[in-house]
Specification:
The chain has 198 residues and is mainly alpha-helical. The protein contains six helices and no strands. It has one domain. Helix content is 81%, strand content 0%. The chain is elongated and about 80 Å long.
């Protein structure tokens, strides 16, 4: 067969061209797989680091799973895996709110102290965000303490009970962070299982 300038191409030219395309496709597939694994691993590590800081680490991990699925054409990440990961992230948020709420009550606070711990923790985390790295953590703990103390004091007018409820809120915040890290580890294990299945 003649080329554009009339020269003859070798008989095996089409085979070589097809082989070259296969090699490029294989190389691209390997690079996408490595990129997908890198996205998943980085999101998992970042998520586990962010959770104790009071930041949305579980949701970063969910995005990592979705990114991995998208980059691998959802071969090993299906609807079931995504539903479980999103469900675990929601569970983490519920556990965080509930544990802080319960510990404020366990340490002698009223329901108002528990609500104060919840509201104060959220407000403190938001106020602390501008301070790099630990601002939101310190803000969340301080806010939970202050909210529980304030709400309990307004109810009972007893400073001892109010401070006790505040300490309960701080302990609850720490227990909630530990619970969310545990849930983050479950998401990481599901992520690793998706990579192994691929």
């Amino acid at each position: 067969m003649g080329g554009a300038n009339g020269a003859q191409r070798p008989a095996g030219w089409r085979v070589l061209r097809g082989h070259s395309a296969d090699m490029w496709y294989l190389a691209l597939s390997v690079m996408l797989e490595l990129l997908a694994v890198a996205v998943l691993v980085l999101c998992a590590i970042a998520g586990l680091v962010l959770v104790p800081l009071g930041l949305p680490g579980l949701w970063i991990m969910v995005l990592g799973v979705l990114g991995y699925g998208w980059l691998t054409e959802f071969r090993s990440v299906g609807v079931w895996t995504i539903a479980v990961v999103v469900g675990l992230a929601f569970l983490g948020e519920i556990v965080e709110a509930w544990v802080g709420f319960r510990f404020a009550q366990r340490y002698g606070g009223s329901r108002r102290a528990a609500w104060g711990a919840l509201i104060g923790g959220i407000v403190g985390a938001v106020i602390g965000v501008p301070v790099p790295v630990l601002g939101s953590v310190v803000g969340a703990f301080a806010g939970a303490f202050a909210g529980a103390v304030l709400f309990e004091y307004l109810t009972s007018r007893n400073p001892t009970v109010a401070v006790s409820a505040g300490w309960g809120a701080v302990v609850g915040r720490a227990a909630a962070a530990a619970s969310k890290v545990g849930i983050g580890l479950m998401i990481a294990i599901l992520s690793a299982a998706a990579v192994i299945r691929a």
